[in-house]
Write the structure tokens for this entry.
Amino acid sequence: MRKAFVVTLAAVVLVAAALAGVVLWQNSYDLHEQRVAVPADGRLLEGVLATPAQGPGPFPLVVFVHGDGDVDATHDGFYRPYWEAFARAGYASLSLDKPADWLSRTMDDRARETTDALAWARTRPEIDGNRIGLWGASQAGWVLPKVVARAPAPGVAFVIAVGTAVNWHRQGEYHLRSELRAEGADPARVADALRAREATLALLRRGATYEEYRASPDADPDLGPERWTFIGRNHTADASADLRAMPPVPVLLLSGADDLNVDGAETEAVYRELLAPGTLTVRRYPGATHALVRTPVERSPWRLPLTALFAPRSLFPSGLLADQRTFLEQQKRRAPGNARDDVPMRPRSGRLLGRG
């Protein structure tokens, strides 16, 4: 009996050690990370500068601009597969922790933070200051065009936009309708939800206080005062004017076909209308969500954490990391100031809250 127990215990230990080894292996990335402190819009933001493991540089750089929420520099490790793919294309990546008071910030504040991060990066000897681009997700769609349109010379070299929207109100209505459709809501429920949304928008338009909002019959009990203030400061966001003012830089627009938050088709149509001809490349991934995670994985309460732990690179749809790596390699091959890619990429088959 004792011998059987010892054998069983040894087997358990071996399995645990093997699983720990898999986790360590899958979460080891071919890049070098260093913590940095970046002066940005009057404050010091902590972050991570990830550089290729080989070569001294100077490296071209991708500056990350977060979506909604309280996000640290690594996005709890979610960004590292991106950083590794970018490092293999010869690029460094810079990502900053969101400030603790991020709910007090406007999209203009966030654009200033990003512009200051670009200026800081150009002081670094390991960075090629003439080849710095932006990567931004979801809510960053109201930040990226501001930065590109206003950045001082040498400006922004390229943009990767992931699940971005154009107009805050249209995005919110799309989000609401898509969630109701996914829940199988009947027409009466949809009509009631849209009426409640319009009533809340009326409060926002007249600058109602949080107390007034909470007294309304349609108030969301989970929406706190800081979030209400954030929405009040940002709900009129529309990227159209900034997109129109952007210089002709290459833009890679990525979206998931199963995105419930943002209408990727509308964003593509507006980008095609407003951006300079020949600058836009679009990739839309079947079976992928707003976060560009494989739909069956993200929508499973057990597959998502297990995949993130044991196979983080498998979170993403086929081709996502490779397409971005190809795009970045193309930017290295083209001369600064020329918006057209040298080699074409291979084709591949929130309600009102601004969340994403």
About this structure: The beta strands are 31-40, 43-52, 59-65, 92-96, 127-137, 159-162, 251-256, 280-285. Residues 1-356 form a domain with the Rossmann fold fold (CATH 3.40.50.1820). Residues 5-26, 339-350 have pLDDT under 50 and may be disordered.
